[in-house]
Write a structure and sequence with these properties.
mainly alpha
């Protein structure tokens, strides 16, 4: 792509960011006007998805742009966008319908917006790996984190971000009890299916008998007219 293409994309990103800023101020403007506007999960989910879309465009512009001053300006906006995305992720976790879970389901919001699941997949900025200064900054922060974790005797092992509790575990339910419940439900399902088949067969038989009776009555009426 040409330089003008990424210049236009950058301009488009800045316009979209200005629109997002206006949306961010909606709760404050509603409060000033005496209106009730309580931001919830849906509000922050829409912001999160839109900022992710803008982030991808900015990251692409920063990676492909050649002009050093423009790359520096895009880098500043890109970092601010990343910070805001992380803040919104915290808000989504706070308003998550699944209380206490770190995993936020955005399937319904993506379906309403007619977007693919790839839209919310996080992509690591390429300048993290390509930029020597950024790499040194990350390493310096990692050393500081390791130092303070050691000072406060906290574990330095990475958190797998997995729920420790089995979601299918039910208190006081053994395997034999679970099998008995499944067998009971299966017998009930089979009984319901058989009842539906018998009911359907009886309705078909009744309709067939009614049809034959009407045909017989029509035949008797025709005979009476001929006589």
């Amino acid at each position: 792509m040409s330089h003008k293409t990424y210049q236009d994309k950058w301009t488009e990103c800045m316009q979209e960011l200005m629109e997002q800023v206006q949306i961010e101020y909606l709760p404050a403007e509603a409060a000033e006007n005496g209106q009730s506007f309580e931001p919830g999960f849906q509000h922050f989910a829409l912001l999160y998805i839109k900022y992710l879309q803008i982030y991808r465009k900015l990251e692409d512009c920063h990676n492909q742009m050649v002009h050093p001053q423009k790359r520096r300006d895009i880098w500043r906006v890109l970092r601010s966008t990343i910070y805001r995305i992380l803040e919104l992720k915290q808000q989504l976790m706070h308003y998550n319908p699944r209380a206490g879970s770190r995993f936020v389901a955005l399937d319904e919001v993506l379906t309403d917006l007619k977007l693919n699941p790839d839209t919310v997949e996080w992509k690591v900025p390429r300048y993290f790996l390509d930029d020597q200064e950024a790499r040194e900054e990350i390493e310096d922060k990692q050393h500081k984190l390791d130092h303070w974790l050691g000072v406060f005797s906290m574990s330095q092992d990475s958190d797998p971000l997995l729920d420790k509790k089995d979601p299918f575990e039910v208190a006081g339910l053994t395997v034999d009890d679970a099998v008995a419940i499944i067998q009971k439900n299966e017998r009930g399902r089979i009984g319901i299916n058989r009842a539906d088949l018998v009911c359907t067969w009886r309705k078909d038989s009744a309709r067939k008998e009614e049809r034959q009776r009407r045909q017989a009555e029509k035949g008797d009426g025709a005979d009476d007219l001929l006589e």
